[in-house]
């Protein structure tokens, strides 16, 4: 039994007090320590390294990314070593985006006809050159079986535990997990991926969007998904990106935010459409300012998770418009959407220039800017290694 005499003799109170003081001192010296880790406490070494290096690289510049970059471009498909960005600049992007839509159906190809086995090969190649990988998922509507763009009342609720489609949704996550577990480096280590769940969730075009469920339902769905991947599937090589479309203010941005334990990267998507350059620059600049303050407050990494100006109909858009909106900001990366080229319906779709495109020259000037980072800029910096930059 611990007697009063024993406590006094051994200075127990003194030891306890000193311990608390030491801990407090440590916290004061290291205020960010507690949050300075991926939200997954069990993240793999490479994922932790990526996380720290992404933070460090914020000071160096903005990494430029491109969706489906190595798979196809305008007027070509599956040519080894080719990329529209590389055709124009001689260098690959620093970030590569990929898309999992239709993996849930056991399809061999995604919704843009990219075979999943080829996608895995590309991701491995990109990892080997030290680039960053991000994945989105336009998953079908689990309630109706229709596309991601066909919302139906009650879908989000149906997917949550207790809902009629929860079991089905879990089988879909099993397939995603199997794909992610197939991403391995040469030593068998898992390749870290930035997973961009339920993107553009403040818009209403996807079934998980704003008008098709309450903020609380979406938060639950987000958390359920992350928890299932972590706890049931034992997946620990992901950084999670919370991702809206353009937004008006902080409140709108955070309305469906699932919580700091579920997010590593905060981002938004923005496309220039009918507004003029000036308006677009203002909007981009304003949204990035709000995003940076949210990221600073929450100790998250800010990024422009998708952007584009369809077919880039302005030959100096890169340096005179996009860069004008980006230049005053410290964000991790900016991902341009895919260069689909001519689609089945005859419609043309691309967001990065290709060799003969009118904005190719300006894109080379954009490439030369000190603060735009491409593959060669980050290659030697070993983004997956602890010593980092
Ligand atoms: C859209 C377009 C579509 C594509 C979808 C998913 O913005 O690019 O052609 O199917 O993204 O990648």
Topology:
Elements: H1 4-9, H2 12-29, H3 45-57, E1 62-67, E2 72-73, E3 76-77, H4 84-89, E4 95-99, H5 116-128, E5 132-136, H6 155-159, H7 166-181, E6 193-196, H8 215-232, E7 238-245, H9 250-254, E8 265-272, H10 277-298, E9 301-309, H11 317-326, E10 333-336, E11 341-342, E12 348-349, H12 360-368, E13 372-373, H13 375-379
Parallel strand pairs: 1-4, 1-10, 1-13, 4-5, 5-6, 6-7, 7-8, 8-9, 9-10
Antiparallel strand pairs: 2-3, 11-12
Helix pairs in contact: 10-11, 11-12
Bound molecules: beta-D-mannopyranose.
What does this protein structure show overall?
The chain has 389 residues and is an alpha/beta fold. It has one domain (4-384): TIM Barrel (Alpha-Beta Barrel), CATH 3.20.20. The chain contains 13 helices and 13 strands. It has helices at 4-9, 12-29, 45-57, 84-89, 116-128, 155-159, 166-181, 215-232, 250-254, 277-298, 317-326, 360-368, 375-379, and strands at 62-67, 72-73, 76-77, 95-99, 132-136, 193-196, 238-245, 265-272, 301-309, 333-336, 341-342, 348-349, 372-373. The strands form 3 sheets. The chain has an 8-stranded parallel barrel. Strand 4, helix 5 and strand 5 (132-136) form a beta-alpha-beta unit. Helix 11 (317-326) crosses helix 12 (360-368). The radius of gyration is 23 Å and the shape is globular. The protein starts with a helix and ends in a 10-residue tail after the last helix. The model is unreliable at 20-34 (pLDDT under 50).
């Amino acid at each position: 039994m611990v007697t009063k005499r024993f406590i006094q003799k051994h200075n127990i109170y003194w030891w306890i007090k000193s311990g608390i003081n030491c801990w407090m001192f440590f916290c004061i010296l290291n205020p960010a320590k507690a949050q300075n880790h991926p939200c997954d406490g069990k993240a793999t070494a490479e994922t932790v390294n990526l996380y720290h290096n992404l933070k460090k690289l914020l000071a160096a510049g903005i990494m430029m990314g491109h969706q489906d970059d190595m798979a196809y471009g305008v007027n070509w498909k599956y040519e080894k070593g080719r990329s529209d960005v590389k055709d124009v600049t001689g260098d690959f992007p620093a970030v590569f985006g990929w898309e999992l839509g239709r993996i849930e159906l056991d399809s061999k190809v995604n919704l843009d006809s990219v075979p999943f086995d080829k996608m895995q090969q590309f991701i491995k190649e990109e990892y080997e050159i030290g680039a960053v990988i991000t994945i989105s998922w336009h998953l079908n509507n689990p309630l109706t079986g229709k596309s991601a763009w066909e919302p139906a009342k009650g879908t989000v609720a149906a997917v949550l535990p207790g809902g009629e489609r929860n079991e089905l949704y879990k089988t879909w996550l099993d397939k995603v997990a199997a794909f992610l577990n197939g991403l391995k480096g040469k030593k068998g280590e898992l390749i870290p991926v930035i997973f961009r769940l339920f993107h553009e969730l403040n818009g209403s075009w996807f079934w998980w969007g704003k008008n098709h469920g309450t903020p609380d339902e979406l938060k639950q769905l987000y958390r359920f998904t992350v928890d299932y991947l972590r706890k049931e599937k034992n997946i620990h090589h992901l950084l999670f990106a919370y991702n809206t479309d353009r937004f008006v203010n902080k409140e709108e941005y955070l309305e469906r935010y699932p919580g700091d334990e579920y997010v590593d990267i905060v981002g938004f998507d923005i496309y220039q459409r009918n507004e003029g350059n000036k308006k677009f620059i203002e909007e981009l600049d304003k949204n990035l300012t709000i995003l940076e303050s949210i990221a600073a407050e929450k100790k998250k990494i800010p990024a422009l998770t998708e952007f584009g100006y369809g077919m880039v109909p302005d030959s100096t858009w890169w340096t005179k418009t996009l860069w004008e909106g980006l230049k005053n900001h410290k964000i991790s990366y900016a991902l341009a959407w895919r260069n689909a080229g001519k689609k089945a319906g005859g419609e043309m779709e691309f967001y990065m220039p290709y060799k003969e495109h009118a904005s190719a020259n300006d894109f080379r000037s954009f490439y030369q800017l000190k603060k735009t980072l491409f593959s060669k800029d980050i290659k030697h910096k070993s983004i997956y290694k602890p010593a980092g930059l």
